TrEMBL record:
Keyword line: ATP-binding, Nucleotide-binding, Transport
Protein name stated in the entry: ABC transport system ATP-binding protein
Residue ranges, compositional bias (Acidic residues): 8-18
Claim: Amino-acid biosynthesis is one of the keywords in the record: no
Domain ABC transporter: 38-272
Disordered as annotated region, ranges: 1-36
InterPro entries named among the record's database cross-references: AAA+_ATPase (IPR003593), ABC_transporter-like_ATP-bd (IPR003439), ABC_transporter-like_CS (IPR017871), ABC_transpr_LolD-like (IPR015854), MacB-like_ATP-bd (IPR017911), P-loop_NTPase (IPR027417)
Protein backbone atom coordinates (compact mmCIF):
# COMPACT_ATOMS: atom_id res chain seq x y z
CA UNK A 1 0.00 0.00 0.00
CA UNK A 2 2.55 2.55 1.06
CA UNK A 3 4.57 1.80 -2.06
CA UNK A 4 1.77 3.20 -4.20
CA UNK A 5 1.57 6.55 -2.50
CA UNK A 6 5.15 6.97 -1.40
CA UNK A 7 7.07 6.31 -4.56
CA UNK A 8 9.84 8.52 -5.75
CA UNK A 9 8.75 12.05 -6.60
CA UNK A 10 8.40 12.62 -10.32
CA UNK A 11 11.30 15.01 -10.40
CA UNK A 12 13.69 12.22 -9.44
CA UNK A 13 12.28 9.67 -11.87
CA UNK A 14 14.70 8.55 -14.54
CA UNK A 15 13.25 9.26 -17.93
CA UNK A 16 16.09 7.70 -19.86
CA UNK A 17 14.78 4.21 -19.25
CA UNK A 18 11.46 5.04 -20.88
CA UNK A 19 11.51 2.98 -24.08
CA UNK A 20 10.18 4.16 -27.39
CA UNK A 21 6.47 3.65 -28.02
CA UNK A 22 5.54 0.33 -29.53
CA UNK A 23 5.23 0.15 -33.29
CA UNK A 24 1.63 0.39 -34.45
CA UNK A 25 0.96 -3.33 -34.36
CA UNK A 26 -2.44 -3.59 -32.79
CA UNK A 27 -3.05 -7.13 -33.92
CA UNK A 28 -6.31 -5.95 -35.41
CA UNK A 29 -7.78 -5.12 -31.98
CA UNK A 30 -7.20 -1.40 -31.79
CA UNK A 31 -9.29 -0.35 -34.71
CA UNK A 32 -8.92 3.39 -34.26
CA UNK A 33 -5.16 3.60 -34.86
CA UNK A 34 -4.16 4.61 -31.32
CA UNK A 35 -2.71 1.88 -29.11
CA UNK A 36 -4.93 0.79 -26.21
CA UNK A 37 -4.28 2.37 -22.82
CA UNK A 38 -3.45 -1.10 -21.54
CA UNK A 39 -2.58 -3.99 -23.81
CA UNK A 40 -1.87 -7.46 -22.40
CA UNK A 41 -0.85 -10.16 -24.87
CA UNK A 42 -0.64 -13.80 -23.87
CA UNK A 43 0.29 -12.88 -20.30
CA UNK A 44 1.06 -15.59 -17.76
CA UNK A 45 2.02 -15.40 -14.11
CA UNK A 46 3.66 -18.42 -12.57
CA UNK A 47 5.18 -18.79 -9.12
CA UNK A 48 7.50 -21.48 -7.84
CA UNK A 49 6.14 -23.17 -4.73
CA UNK A 50 8.39 -24.44 -1.90
CA UNK A 51 8.01 -28.03 -3.14
CA UNK A 52 9.41 -26.92 -6.55
CA UNK A 53 6.00 -27.24 -8.18
CA UNK A 54 4.96 -24.39 -10.45
CA UNK A 55 1.65 -22.65 -9.73
CA UNK A 56 0.15 -21.21 -12.91
CA UNK A 57 -1.91 -18.31 -11.56
CA UNK A 58 -2.64 -16.54 -14.87
CA UNK A 59 -2.68 -18.24 -18.27
CA UNK A 60 -2.70 -16.69 -21.73
CA UNK A 61 -4.38 -13.43 -20.76
CA UNK A 62 -5.26 -11.15 -23.68
CA UNK A 63 -6.83 -7.89 -22.54
CA UNK A 64 -7.08 -4.48 -24.15
CA UNK A 65 -8.44 -1.53 -22.18
CA UNK A 66 -9.15 1.82 -23.79
CA UNK A 67 -9.65 5.29 -22.36
CA UNK A 68 -13.34 5.65 -21.49
CA UNK A 69 -13.90 1.91 -21.03
CA UNK A 70 -15.57 0.56 -17.92
CA UNK A 71 -14.47 -3.05 -17.59
CA UNK A 72 -15.43 -5.53 -14.90
CA UNK A 73 -13.47 -8.67 -14.11
CA UNK A 74 -15.34 -11.15 -11.96
CA UNK A 75 -14.24 -14.43 -10.50
CA UNK A 76 -14.25 -16.61 -7.45
CA UNK A 77 -11.79 -16.31 -4.59
CA UNK A 78 -8.33 -17.50 -5.58
CA UNK A 79 -8.90 -17.31 -9.36
CA UNK A 80 -6.11 -14.75 -9.84
CA UNK A 81 -7.94 -11.39 -9.66
CA UNK A 82 -5.44 -9.67 -7.36
CA UNK A 83 -2.54 -11.05 -9.37
CA UNK A 84 -4.03 -9.58 -12.55
CA UNK A 85 -4.77 -6.28 -10.80
CA UNK A 86 -1.16 -6.05 -9.61
CA UNK A 87 0.05 -6.53 -13.17
CA UNK A 88 -2.40 -3.94 -14.54
CA UNK A 89 -1.26 -1.55 -11.80
CA UNK A 90 2.45 -2.00 -12.60
CA UNK A 91 3.00 -3.48 -9.14
CA UNK A 92 3.99 -6.86 -10.54
CA UNK A 93 5.24 -8.20 -13.87
CA UNK A 94 4.05 -11.01 -16.13
CA UNK A 95 6.14 -14.17 -16.11
CA UNK A 96 5.73 -14.42 -19.90
CA UNK A 97 3.82 -12.42 -22.47
CA UNK A 98 3.82 -8.66 -22.97
CA UNK A 99 2.16 -5.66 -21.43
CA UNK A 100 2.11 -2.17 -22.87
CA UNK A 101 0.83 0.91 -21.08
CA UNK A 102 -0.04 3.91 -23.22
CA UNK A 103 1.80 2.18 -26.05
CA UNK A 104 5.00 1.58 -24.08
CA UNK A 105 6.21 -1.94 -23.31
CA UNK A 106 6.51 -1.95 -19.53
CA UNK A 107 9.01 -4.82 -19.36
CA UNK A 108 11.79 -2.40 -20.24
CA UNK A 109 10.87 0.19 -17.63
CA UNK A 110 13.16 0.71 -14.67
CA UNK A 111 11.73 1.06 -11.18
CA UNK A 112 11.68 4.87 -11.27
CA UNK A 113 9.98 5.07 -14.64
CA UNK A 114 7.46 2.45 -13.56
CA UNK A 115 6.74 4.39 -10.35
CA UNK A 116 6.41 7.63 -12.28
CA UNK A 117 3.99 6.06 -14.75
CA UNK A 118 1.98 4.49 -11.92
CA UNK A 119 1.79 7.71 -9.91
CA UNK A 120 0.77 9.87 -12.86
CA UNK A 121 -1.54 7.52 -14.74
CA UNK A 122 -3.09 4.97 -12.36
CA UNK A 123 -5.45 5.45 -9.42
CA UNK A 124 -6.21 2.62 -6.96
CA UNK A 125 -9.40 2.07 -4.96
CA UNK A 126 -9.37 -0.78 -2.44
CA UNK A 127 -12.01 -2.72 -0.55
CA UNK A 128 -10.70 -1.59 2.85
CA UNK A 129 -10.19 2.05 1.74
CA UNK A 130 -6.56 2.08 2.98
CA UNK A 131 -6.70 5.68 4.17
CA UNK A 132 -3.78 6.89 6.22
CA UNK A 133 -4.79 6.93 9.90
CA UNK A 134 -4.03 10.06 11.89
CA UNK A 135 -4.39 12.27 8.83
CA UNK A 136 -7.45 14.26 7.85
CA UNK A 137 -9.54 13.53 4.78
CA UNK A 138 -7.90 16.50 3.07
CA UNK A 139 -4.38 15.32 3.96
CA UNK A 140 -5.22 11.87 2.60
CA UNK A 141 -6.40 13.32 -0.70
CA UNK A 142 -3.34 15.60 -0.87
CA UNK A 143 -0.89 12.73 -0.43
CA UNK A 144 -0.50 11.74 -4.11
CA UNK A 145 0.03 15.41 -5.01
CA UNK A 146 3.13 15.50 -2.81
CA UNK A 147 4.75 13.21 -5.38
CA UNK A 148 3.35 14.84 -8.50
CA UNK A 149 4.42 17.70 -10.72
CA UNK A 150 5.63 21.00 -9.25
CA UNK A 151 2.25 22.57 -10.05
CA UNK A 152 0.40 19.74 -8.31
CA UNK A 153 2.68 20.07 -5.30
CA UNK A 154 2.27 23.82 -4.84
CA UNK A 155 -1.47 23.80 -5.49
CA UNK A 156 -2.10 20.59 -3.56
CA UNK A 157 -4.45 22.17 -1.02
CA UNK A 158 -6.78 23.67 -3.60
CA UNK A 159 -6.68 20.65 -5.94
CA UNK A 160 -7.45 18.27 -3.06
CA UNK A 161 -10.25 20.51 -1.73
CA UNK A 162 -11.82 20.67 -5.19
CA UNK A 163 -11.69 16.87 -5.38
CA UNK A 164 -13.22 16.45 -1.91
CA UNK A 165 -15.95 18.83 -2.98
CA UNK A 166 -16.48 16.69 -6.08
CA UNK A 167 -17.20 13.65 -3.91
CA UNK A 168 -19.46 15.71 -1.61
CA UNK A 169 -17.14 15.79 1.40
CA UNK A 170 -15.71 19.32 1.42
CA UNK A 171 -17.36 19.93 4.79
CA UNK A 172 -15.52 16.91 6.26
CA UNK A 173 -12.06 17.94 5.05
CA UNK A 174 -10.58 18.21 8.55
CA UNK A 175 -12.12 14.93 9.76
CA UNK A 176 -9.94 11.88 10.40
CA UNK A 177 -10.87 8.60 8.70
CA UNK A 178 -12.03 6.82 11.86
CA UNK A 179 -14.69 9.49 12.33
CA UNK A 180 -16.15 8.87 8.88
CA UNK A 181 -18.64 6.18 7.84
CA UNK A 182 -17.51 3.39 5.51
CA UNK A 183 -19.17 5.03 2.52
CA UNK A 184 -17.57 8.38 3.36
CA UNK A 185 -14.15 6.74 3.74
CA UNK A 186 -14.53 5.14 0.33
CA UNK A 187 -15.47 8.53 -1.16
CA UNK A 188 -12.29 10.01 0.33
CA UNK A 189 -10.37 7.07 -1.13
CA UNK A 190 -11.96 7.73 -4.53
CA UNK A 191 -11.01 11.42 -4.27
CA UNK A 192 -7.44 10.39 -3.47
CA UNK A 193 -7.35 7.88 -6.34
CA UNK A 194 -8.57 10.45 -8.86
CA UNK A 195 -6.86 13.59 -7.61
CA UNK A 196 -4.03 13.32 -10.15
CA UNK A 197 -6.54 12.63 -12.93
CA UNK A 198 -5.25 9.15 -13.76
CA UNK A 199 -6.07 7.61 -17.12
CA UNK A 200 -6.66 4.20 -15.51
CA UNK A 201 -8.61 3.57 -12.29
CA UNK A 202 -8.25 0.12 -10.75
CA UNK A 203 -10.96 -0.67 -8.22
CA UNK A 204 -10.47 -3.89 -6.23
CA UNK A 205 -13.79 -4.95 -4.65
CA UNK A 206 -14.68 -1.26 -4.08
CA UNK A 207 -18.04 -2.08 -2.50
CA UNK A 208 -16.90 -5.17 -0.61
CA UNK A 209 -16.96 -3.49 2.82
CA UNK A 210 -20.17 -1.51 2.25
CA UNK A 211 -23.87 -2.29 2.51
CA UNK A 212 -25.74 -2.66 -0.77
CA UNK A 213 -27.20 0.86 -0.86
CA UNK A 214 -23.94 2.60 0.08
CA UNK A 215 -22.09 0.38 -2.39
CA UNK A 216 -24.42 1.47 -5.18
CA UNK A 217 -23.89 5.13 -4.31
CA UNK A 218 -20.11 4.61 -4.33
CA UNK A 219 -20.25 2.84 -7.70
CA UNK A 220 -22.43 5.66 -9.10
CA UNK A 221 -19.81 8.16 -7.99
CA UNK A 222 -16.90 6.14 -9.35
CA UNK A 223 -18.69 5.65 -12.68
CA UNK A 224 -19.59 9.31 -12.99
CA UNK A 225 -16.19 10.72 -12.13
CA UNK A 226 -14.36 8.18 -14.31
CA UNK A 227 -16.63 9.04 -17.24
CA UNK A 228 -16.31 12.79 -16.70
CA UNK A 229 -12.54 12.63 -16.54
CA UNK A 230 -12.30 10.29 -19.54
CA UNK A 231 -10.46 7.64 -17.54
CA UNK A 232 -10.76 3.89 -18.01
CA UNK A 233 -12.25 2.11 -15.02
CA UNK A 234 -11.43 -1.52 -14.26
CA UNK A 235 -13.49 -3.00 -11.43
CA UNK A 236 -12.47 -6.32 -9.94
CA UNK A 237 -15.31 -7.94 -8.08
CA UNK A 238 -17.05 -11.17 -7.17
CA UNK A 239 -20.41 -9.35 -7.18
CA UNK A 240 -22.34 -9.63 -10.44
CA UNK A 241 -24.52 -6.63 -9.52
CA UNK A 242 -21.38 -4.49 -9.46
CA UNK A 243 -20.05 -6.15 -12.61
CA UNK A 244 -23.34 -5.55 -14.45
CA UNK A 245 -22.68 -1.80 -14.40
CA UNK A 246 -19.62 -2.20 -16.62
CA UNK A 247 -19.86 -1.96 -20.38
CA UNK A 248 -17.40 -4.82 -20.85
CA UNK A 249 -17.38 -7.87 -18.60
CA UNK A 250 -14.90 -10.68 -18.25
CA UNK A 251 -14.83 -13.75 -16.12
CA UNK A 252 -11.55 -14.98 -14.65
CA UNK A 253 -11.63 -18.69 -13.91
CA UNK A 254 -8.49 -20.46 -12.61
CA UNK A 255 -6.33 -17.91 -14.37
CA UNK A 256 -8.14 -17.96 -17.72
CA UNK A 257 -9.97 -14.81 -18.85
CA UNK A 258 -13.12 -15.04 -20.97
CA UNK A 259 -15.71 -12.50 -22.11
CA UNK A 260 -19.06 -11.60 -20.53
CA UNK A 261 -19.25 -13.02 -17.05
CA UNK A 262 -22.89 -11.97 -16.82
CA UNK A 263 -23.73 -14.98 -18.97
CA UNK A 264 -22.54 -17.25 -16.16
CA UNK A 265 -25.52 -17.65 -13.78
CA UNK A 266 -23.63 -19.78 -11.26
CA UNK A 267 -21.61 -16.74 -10.21
CA UNK A 268 -24.69 -14.84 -9.04
CA UNK A 269 -24.77 -16.94 -5.89
CA UNK A 270 -21.21 -15.88 -5.09
CA UNK A 271 -22.17 -12.22 -5.10
CA UNK A 272 -25.40 -12.69 -3.25
N1 LIG B 1 3.46 -15.30 -4.49
C1 LIG B 1 2.63 -16.34 -4.42
N2 LIG B 1 3.09 -17.54 -4.01
C2 LIG B 1 2.28 -18.61 -3.96
N3 LIG B 1 0.98 -18.59 -4.31
C3 LIG B 1 0.46 -17.43 -4.72
C4 LIG B 1 1.25 -16.25 -4.80
N4 LIG B 1 0.46 -15.25 -5.24
C5 LIG B 1 -0.76 -15.78 -5.42
N5 LIG B 1 -0.77 -17.08 -5.11
C6 LIG B 1 -1.91 -18.01 -5.20
O1 LIG B 1 -2.49 -17.82 -6.49
C7 LIG B 1 -3.91 -17.89 -6.42
C8 LIG B 1 -4.52 -16.61 -6.94
O2 LIG B 1 -4.24 -15.56 -6.02
P1 LIG B 1 -4.97 -14.14 -6.09
O3 LIG B 1 -4.61 -13.40 -4.85
O4 LIG B 1 -4.62 -13.48 -7.38
O5 LIG B 1 -6.51 -14.56 -6.10
P2 LIG B 1 -7.84 -13.67 -5.98
O6 LIG B 1 -8.71 -14.07 -7.11
O7 LIG B 1 -7.48 -12.23 -5.89
O8 LIG B 1 -8.45 -14.17 -4.62
P3 LIG B 1 -9.38 -13.39 -3.55
O9 LIG B 1 -10.64 -13.00 -4.29
O10 LIG B 1 -9.64 -14.41 -2.49
O11 LIG B 1 -8.60 -12.21 -3.05
C9 LIG B 1 -4.25 -18.19 -4.98
O12 LIG B 1 -4.42 -19.58 -4.83
C10 LIG B 1 -3.02 -17.72 -4.21
O13 LIG B 1 -2.84 -18.46 -3.02
Amino acid sequence: MSSIFHDEPEESAVDQDMPEAWPQDDGGTAGQGNPPLVDLRDVTRTVLLPDDEQLHILRGIDLQIRVGDHTAIVGRSGCGKSTLLNILGLLDSPTTGTMAFEGRPVAKLGNNARAKMRGASIGFVFQQFNLLPGRSALENVMTPLMYGTAKEFWQRNKIAMDMLDRVGLAARAATQPHMLSGGEQQRVAIARALVRRPRLILADEPTGALDVETGQAVMDLLDTIATESGAALVTITHDLNVAARARTRYRLDTGVLSMDASAEPDLVAVGA
